[in-house]
């Protein structure tokens, strides 16, 4: 297949490497506003470069991956869909809920698949956790816990344009807990703290956050995020039920050491970032997208799914600001 890639920043360049290594991708067509980024990717991956999004959409591609800035997601998704091209877009759907809701209404007029990039759904262990929950092996689900702890924060410039920890980081956790439980969030309580770099407070963000989520099926969710986890990149999913409990993310490179006497020492080279922790999941995600683009299966993670995770994030922002529980319906835009 011939695949287009829009945006060659940090994640886009990583996607170029992954896509070019998949045998089913015969050719990769790329574009970015910065020529130097394009040159680096074409030199490294042998990709074909075009000068604009318009050229890419008419270059005979079978599908498009969008890794551009968040504020470009909506117009780029629409441009691809209007051209009849299946799309895989990085999260979030849009820079604000109103734009995302408007996009969803527009997409009702098209029969072109759009897939949102929530890669944790394609992690083998997390998929096994969902399978166990779906099969009833855990009994009644009591608690689901999702953790994302970065080893160090990104730049001030990134944080300033990220939308904050709930929209940028926690949204992955919000999607995975919704997906694995099969339940919808009805209320959240969020709180955060700033004890690191001064720029978090300067841009109205926090560097550490915890969220309690109440789901419509009665399960309680706990989401933990931080930009400062010195030991490494810690991403876990734990599901506790009345019959059994199961977890994903506890592997030899899990950045945690046990204080129990005689406990096995962890790997001295723990996960450091998402690019090593989720390399296989990214590949599986793209292979799924190729099947979607080929018409072999529907999108497993739609714009509507992306918006549901986004509404949880929006409720968290309001909850943290107002120091109170916030129901999802308070922030949802139809």
List the helices and strands and how they pair.
Elements: E1 2-6, H1 10-20, E2 27-31, H2 35-45, E3 48-49, H3 53-57, E4 63-66, H4 73-82, E5 87-90, H5 97-107, E6 114-117, H6 124-134, E7 141-149, H7 156-162, H8 165-168, H9 170-181, E8 185-193, H10 199-202, E9 208-215, E10 220-226, E11 234-241, E12 245-248, H11 274-277, H12 279-293, H13 303-322, E13 326-327
Parallel strand pairs: 1-2, 1-4, 2-3, 4-5, 5-6, 7-10
Antiparallel strand pairs: 7-11, 8-9, 8-13, 9-10, 11-12
Helix pairs in contact: 1-2, 5-13, 6-9, 9-13
Provide keyphrases for this structure.
single chain; alpha/beta; Rossmann fold; 2 domains; seven-stranded mixed sheet; 37% helix
Question: Could you please describe the fold and organization of this structure?
Answer:
The protein has 334 residues and is an alpha/beta fold. It has 2 domains: 111 residues, NAD(P)-binding Rossmann-like Domain (Rossmann fold), CATH 3.40.50; 179 residues, Dihydrodipicolinate Reductase, domain 2. 37% of the residues lie in helices and 21% in strands. It is built from 13 helices and 13 strands. The strands form 2 sheets. A 7-stranded mixed beta sheet has the order 12-11-7-10-9-8-13. Strand 4, helix 4 and strand 5 form a beta-alpha-beta unit. Helix 1 runs parallel beside helix 2, helix 5 runs antiparallel to helix 13 and helix 6 packs parallel to helix 9. 42% of the residues are buried. The model has no long low-confidence stretch (mean pLDDT 96).
């Amino acid at each position: 297949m011939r695949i287009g890639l829009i945006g060659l920043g940090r994640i886009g360049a990583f996607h170029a490497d992954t896509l070019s290594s998949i045998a089913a991708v015969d050719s990769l067509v790329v574009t970015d506003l910065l020529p130097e980024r394009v040159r680096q990717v074409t030199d490294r991956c042998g990709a074909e470069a075009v000068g604009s999004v318009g050229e890419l959409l008419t270059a005979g591609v079978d599908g498009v991956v969008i890794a551009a800035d968040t504020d470009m997601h909506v117009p780029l998704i629409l441009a691809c869909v209007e051209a009849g091209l299946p799309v895989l877009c990085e999260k979030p759907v849009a820079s604000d809920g109103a734009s995302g809701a408007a996009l969803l209404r527009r997409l009702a007029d098209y029969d072109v698949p759009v897939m949102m990039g929530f890669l944790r759904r394609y992690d083998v262990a997390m998929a096994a956790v969902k399978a166990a929950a779906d099969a009833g092996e855990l009994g009644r689900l009591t608690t689901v816990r999702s953790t994302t702890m970065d080893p160090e924060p990104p730049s001030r410039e990134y944080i300033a344009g990220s939308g904050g920890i709930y929209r940028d980081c926690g949204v992955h956790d919000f999607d995975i807990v919704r997906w694995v439980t099969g339940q919808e969030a009805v209320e959240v309580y969020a709180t955060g703290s700033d004890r690191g770099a001064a720029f978090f407070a300067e841009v109205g963000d926090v560097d550490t956050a915890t969220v309690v989520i109440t789901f419509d099926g009665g399960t309680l969710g706990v989401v933990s995020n931080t930009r400062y986890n010195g030991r490494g990149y810690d991403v876990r999913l734990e599901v506790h039920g009345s019959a059994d409990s199961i977890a994903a993310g506890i592997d030899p490179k899990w950045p945690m050491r046990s204080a129990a006497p005689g406990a096995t020492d962890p790997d001295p080279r723990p996960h450091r970032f998402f690019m090593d922790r989720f390399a296989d999941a990214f590949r599986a995600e793209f292979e799924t997208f190729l099947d979607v683009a080929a018409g072999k299966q529907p999108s497993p993670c739609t714009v509507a799914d992306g918006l549901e995770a986004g509404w949880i994030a929006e409720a968290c922002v309001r909850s943290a600001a107002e120091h109170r529980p916030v129901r999802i319906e308070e922030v949802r835009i139809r």
